[in-house]
Amino acid sequence: MTSNSAVPPQLPLSDRVREALAIAKRGAEELLIEAEFAQKLARSEQTGTPLRIKLGLDPTAPDLHLGHTVVLNKMRQLQNLGHQVIFLIGDFTSMIGDPSGRNTTRPPLTREQIETNAMTYFKQASLVLDPSKTEIRYNSEWCDALGARGMIQLASRYTVARMMERDDFTKRYKAGTPISVHEFLYPLMQGYDSVALKSDLELGGTDQKFNLLVGRELQKDYGQEPQCILTMPLLEGLDGVEKMSKSKNNYIGITEPANTMFAKVMSISDVMMWRYYELLSWRSLDEVAQLKAAVEGGANPRDAKVALGKEIVARFHSAQAADDALADFVNRSKGGIPDDIPEVALSGAPLAIANLLKQANLVASTSEGMRMVDQGGVRIDGDVVSDKGLKVEAGTVVVQVGKRKFARVTLTA
Asked: How confident is the model at residue 1 (pLDDT cuts 50, 70, 90)?
């Protein structure tokens, strides 16, 4: 008995397609469905038609750190392979608020917040993507046009039971935590974006998997070939444990000064360095494997970390800034004072050391200043301060807290 549904013949995979598949999978958490994506790549090569690759971002936080760039790096790699990347700004979905990974309803943003954040977001994302080859879209283009009738028709295509398969919805329901009806619309609207854009591949973090799958199902429902899904892991921060986050203060911001950025890269552990190489570096996997083999063979891991730090700084600043940042780091490690330290004028001499540190913005509070003195982390003109009761006399001194905070303080009576 033969099936009525014709199965399209499988295209052979060229070496170029296999290489593109390996690039797509590098560092990825999951590629669904790999065999389908391989066929999309093969068809693209055969027809010369680039794949449409979508990344949707709700502009909820305008400042990006290296953790945000993991998925942007993947977009750039696929862009370099000749595919069309679509940077989708969720100006409509931001008004709903993404409930992913949350145990409460996310407050929606105002139109003004969305527009301001979106501009900042794309400007920073363009430090990774090639802006001249990036299609920028706003999902209000098609979401606004749906209207109430279209929204009801879209909602009829998905069941409540399917929505409740989402882990965070299930947990909230069981815990008796309120779930607003509009939150069910978020995955539907994100999925409809894929229909509107005829997406071939959608990228996202691991926490977005459910939403990405909704897009795949809706495309089938609308008679389109379903998109494939590529999820990227969440990058650990400088502590090597928690995900990179500003609130946890374990982040490297992509607009931070070059010297700060380089020093932060140098502070990660030798083990975590390879994770950063895999997810952030443009070096080929063969090059990274050679570096790792060299370190395992006795080479100094610091040299590999310096190369990583310089690569990252050069990407967001310049090659010259990377060289200068290395020189600054070496100077500081020898106890030297960097050239570009802030100048601070204070009065009230003689001034207690903890008060001086706080007023010079070197610590957040006097109690933190006391702690830093206790830990031997405070220096004046290169000498360690051990007396918490020290009162600093009038004059100009260079004050250092930890490895990276400096200020040239001029203190008057």
From this structure: very low
Contact status, residue 153 vs residue 84, Cβ threshold 8 Å:
no
**Residue 245 backbone phi and psi in degrees, to 5:** -160, 140
How far apart CA 403 and CA 398 sit, in angstroms, is 13
Edge to edge, the sheet with strand 201-205 lists 30-32, 228-232, 201-205, 52-57, 84-89, 134-138
Strand 201-205 and strand 30-32: pairing? Answer: unpaired
Q: Which two tokens stand for residue 341?
A: 């330290």
Answer yes or no: is 246 a known binding residue.
Answer: yes
Read off the pLDDT of residues 327-347 as tens digits, 9 standing for 90 and up.
888 887 776 677 678 888 888
Tokens encoding 211: 């939403």
Q: Where are the domains of the chain?
A: 15-232, 258-333, 343-412
What would the two tokens of residue 46 be?
Answer: 């055969």
Fold of 15-232: Rossmann fold (3.40.50)
Segment 27-50, tens digit of pLDDT: 899 998 999 999 999 999 999 999
CA distance 154 to 42: 32
SS (H, E, C) 246-306: CCCCCCCECCCCHHHHHHHHHCCCHHHHHHHHHHHCCCCHHHHHHHHHHHHCCCCHHHHHH
The domain 258-333 is placed in CATH, from the list 2.30.30, 1.10.240, 3.30.1950, 1.20.1250, at 1.10.240
17 exposure class (CB count in 10 Å sphere: 0-12, 13-18, 19+): buried
